[in-house]
């Protein structure tokens, strides 16, 4: 079944772009990374797998990203969390397995905390929990911090050659959603897939998340050959296996 782009009208006047594939449950919800959209490589790969397995899948773009309305410089972690909750509440039915990549892993955790009755499990790919503080602010040189305070925005380089637009507003607002000081009261099963060679979200960050999660059904799969992208064919097969395990 085709999953053409549709739009969810929000009460604030913004629209959330999404693709929804019909299928059997439990449904899957894809949450993208910081610079990614619902049409990124891993998202499309999961969509292909869902089509083969006749599984329901929802993908969407955060506000200010991809085909959704809004300005990227206005984006906040809390705003993107609200996007995820609106997508789950209004576009899905029944239990869902949330599949979050990088930043999407943090948002998946926040969604699971807010909607425990709807979330059956979490599959987290190189989860960038507390991204804005631990992986951004804490590692920025002093002169960059000063520039960010002064100018309100800065483009942070990544290991893939891209840049991420970091705003002072996002850093400050993100402090409302920090989790790693734990315990993180997520009780559903959690599977973490992490690359040993990841230079954007180090494997030690995934271990810290593992330690912070309060639930017992939590597993970390560390792949020595993988980097942050986790998009090699064998990594995608690992992803599909984890989704199937929790479904």
Q: Mind summarizing the main beta sheet?
A: 8 strands, mixed
Low-confidence stretches: none
If classified by CATH, what would the architecture be?
Answer: 3-Layer(aba) Sandwich
- What is the CATH topology assignment? Rossmann fold
Tell me the structural class. alpha/beta
* Multimeric status of the protein: single chain
Helix share, percent = 25-40%
Summed over residues and divided by their number, the pLDDT gives a mean of 95
Per CATH, the superfamily is: Alpha/Beta hydrolase fold, catalytic domain
Instruction: Report the strand count.
Output: 10
How many domains in all?
1
Strand order of the largest sheet: 1-2-4-3-5-6-9-10
Protein name: Palmitoyl-protein thioesterase ABHD10, mitochondrial
Enzyme class: hydrolase
Pfam families: Hydrolase_4
Catalytic activity: S-hexadecanoyl-L-cysteinyl-[protein] + H2O = L-cysteinyl-[protein] + hexadecanoate + H(+); mycophenolic acid O-acyl-beta-D-glucuronide + H2O = mycophenolate + D-glucuronate + H(+)
């Amino acid at each position: 079944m085709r999953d053409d782009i549709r739009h969810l009208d929000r009460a604030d006047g913004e629209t959330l772009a999404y693709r929804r594939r019909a299928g059997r449950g439990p449904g899957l919800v894809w949450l993208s990374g910081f610079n990614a959209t619902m049409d990124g490589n891993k998202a499309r790969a999961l969509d292909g797998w869902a089509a083969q397995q006749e599984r329901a899948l929802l993908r969407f773009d955060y506000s200010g990203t991809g085909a959704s309305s809004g300005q990227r410089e206005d984006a906040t972690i809390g705003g993107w969390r609200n996007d995820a909750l609106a997508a789950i509440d209004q576009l899905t039915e029944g239990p869902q397995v949330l599949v979050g990549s990088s930043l999407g892993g943090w948002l998946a955790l926040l969604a699971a905390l807010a909607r425990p009755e709807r979330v059956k499990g979490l599959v987290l790919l190189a989860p960038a929990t507390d991204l804005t503080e631990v992986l951004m602010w804490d590692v920025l040189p002093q002169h960059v911090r000063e520039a960010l305070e002064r100018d309100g925005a800065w483009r942070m380089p990544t290991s893939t050659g891209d840049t991420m637009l970091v705003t002072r507003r996002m850093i400050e607002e993100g402090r409302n959603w920090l989790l790693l000081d734990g315990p993180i009261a997520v009780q559903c099963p959690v599977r973490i897939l992490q690359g040993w060679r990841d230079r954007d979200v180090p494997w030690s960050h995934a271990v810290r998340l593992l330690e912070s999660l309060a639930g017992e059904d939590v597993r970390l799969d560390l792949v020595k050959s993988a980097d942050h992208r986790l998009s090699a064919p064998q990594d995608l097969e690992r992803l599909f296996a984890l989704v199937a395990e929790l479904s």
